[in-house]
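Data availability (excerpt). The following record was deposited with the supplementary files.
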Amino acid sequence: MEKIQVKRDAYETEILKKRVEEKFGTVMHTPSNFDKLSATILLETKKYLSPTTLKRLWGYIDGAEIIRYSTLDILSLYLGYKNWDDFLNNLENDGCSTSKEYFNATIESKDLRIGDVIQLTWWPNRTVEVEYNGDNNFEVISSVNSKLCVTDTFKCAFFVNGESLLLDYYIHNGMTPTKYLCGKEGGIKAKKL
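Predicted structure:
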């Protein structure tokens, strides 16, 4: 039974992937890279991770936004740690977890033009399109399987893939402004249309 699942684009997962690439000696960007890494991991750890699982983890192919704990255990073992928890403990000892860089793709409102449309998706099957109205203001123009409704408005300075999205000054159906959190489990995926 799996203990926990982790976001594919979580900070710690990004560090793990970078360290795997450093040990492997290659930046993962071709199918053959993933085939060779899978074989190398099997040889060194006696544990199997399929090339497809590795491709999903690196975002080379679409798939799960959540990574199984067992996958992270095997990659940590490949790096010489006992398991994922041991890897995380070593990150904390290295001071890596006290600060956070964003490796994830980010869309910033300051870079948008009025009328630009952003598509937001999050687990399990939410899809919302929002239109930029200037000054960090957005309006929902399409909503599927979400509590956000067409004509709802909110303020947001940036969208970070793989992280939760906090909507500030969220107005739903003309009601009193509040805050609303999207993608609490697994974060959001944002792309400019």
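Summary of structural features: The first strand starts at residue 5 and ends at 7.
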